[in-house]
Every structure is written in structure tokens, then in C-alpha cells.
Amino acid sequence: MTKYRAILGLLFFFIAVATFAQGNFHKGVLHLNKGKAKEVYIEIDFEFPQRFQQGITYMEPKDFDKYMKTGKMKGKMKQKMEPKHFEGFSLEDGREFKTVWYADLTGKAIKMIPKRMTLEQVAEGPINVYKLYSRTTGKINQELADVFFEDRANLVNYIQDNFQLLVLKDKKNPTNVVQINLLNYIGDNPRVKENYDNNQYGLRNQFSDGFKMGKYVNKEFEAAFLRMIDDYNQESTTDSEARSR
């Protein structure tokens, strides 16, 4: 009886693992270089953000269908691709990821050489905004290490609520939001600047004494910042369309 229970336990374990793995693959369109594109299923696992930011793992639709039917993953079903081979990807749930060059200048050991990464894009227009999630292998900060090793159940929540927000306008590469002069980005729009000064976006609240930004921000900061950026982008796009008529 004990033997059968052990077998059943292992069976349920493997089923759970397979179900979890299936849930990590998201249907989308991979935008290759030279304007080419193809439908694929891309792995998005927030326990290991580096696996979709520094390269992707994906499955062709026919292989994904086989995997869903059998629950068996053969080696050749999963394919990998580096960011240098594609411009980004769009997921069916609406999320967009773009390949950009970024040099992290926020740490003590400044890395001056930009690195090609594929990041989630959360604002598009004259001002583009991207999210860079923390890697969970290699050299990581102490707070993340504590969560990773001591509170694994909350790891994904921590990663999704502690990230770098990168901003790009009139430059080749994006900059961490903590390092920008905000007036250089929104100062040419008096209405948006006045709204910011009057805290209509709720962004000024995020700079209170109790808020420790470091190089990371949270979802609350992101929401307030994007309210301002979306307002700026929308007006800039409207003005541009009016001038082109």
C-alpha cells in the first residue's frame, strides 16, 4: 500500500510540474530581424527573468500542441534564441517586449558597455518606458537573495514589485528613471509639467521621505509614472497628427 501511495505521489508531482511548465509558455509573435515574424509559444518564467530578458526559449505551435497532448517534453521541442536575432515579441495577452541596448550605471561597479536585452515595454511614443526585472542567478542583491533562499513562495511577487524602470527619449539607449532629470523628458509640455507640479498624476507622492527608491521601483511608482508618460505621449501624438494634415 505504501508503495502505491509513493507511486501516486510521484505521478501527481510530475503532473503538477508539467502543468506549471505549460503555464509558462505564452502564445505570441516573435518579431525577427529584417521584418520577418512567426507565431510561437514563448517561455515567461518570473522565477528566472534572465531567461526571457537575455535570450528566449520558445516552442513551435506544432511542438507545443504535442506537448499539451502528451505532457512529454523532448529536447528538440524547446528552441533558444539570442536577442541579436530578433527585435522583440508580442504576447497574445497584450504584453510587448522589445530588444534594446542598456548599460546599468546604477551600481558601484559601473558597467559602461551596453548589453542587448529584451525588455517588457510599458509605454510607447516620444517617450518609451521599459521594465528590467532582476536576475535570480549569478551576482544578486542581498534582499533578493534572502527572498530567493528563505521565502521562495513570494519570489515571483517580489520580482514583479521590485524592478528597474528604464526611460528612452531622443537617445540611443534607455536610462534608469532614478538617474534622469525629469524636466528633460516632460519639460517641453507645459500642461504635463504643471500637472506633475500639482501632483495630478500622484507621482510626487512617490518621492516622500519614507520611500526608498535605490535603483528599483514598485508597481505603485510605475502606475503614477505611466499616468504622466501616457498623458505626455498622447498629446504629443495628437499634435504630430494635426501638424501632418
General description of the model:
It comes from Muriicola jejuensis. Keywords: Signal. This is DUF4468 domain-containing protein. The protein is built from 8 helices and 10 strands. By secondary structure, it is α+β, with helices and mostly antiparallel strands. It folds into 2 domains: 1-87, no CATH class; 95-245, no CATH class. Strands 4-3-2-1-5-6-7-8-9-10 form a 10-stranded antiparallel beta sheet. The longest helix has 26 residues, at 219-244. It is globular and about 60 Å long. Mean pLDDT is 85; it is low at 1-21.
Put simply, the count of helices is 8
* Mean pLDDT value: 85
What fraction of residues sit in β-strands? 15-25%
User: Strands across the major sheet, in which order?
Assistant: 4-3-2-1-5-6-7-8-9-10
Kindly give the count of domains.
2
**What summary fits the major beta sheet?**
10 strands, antiparallel
Low-confidence stretches: 1-21
Query: Assembly state here?
Result: single chain
- The percent of residues in helical segments reads 25-40%
Report the structural category: alpha+beta
Radius of gyration: 21 Å
Give the overall form.
globular
**First-last Cα distance:** 79 Å
- What is the H/E string? HEEHEHEEEEEHHEEHHH
Number of strands: 10
Organism: Muriicola jejuensis
Signal peptide: 1-21
Keywords: Signal
Protein name: DUF4468 domain-containing protein
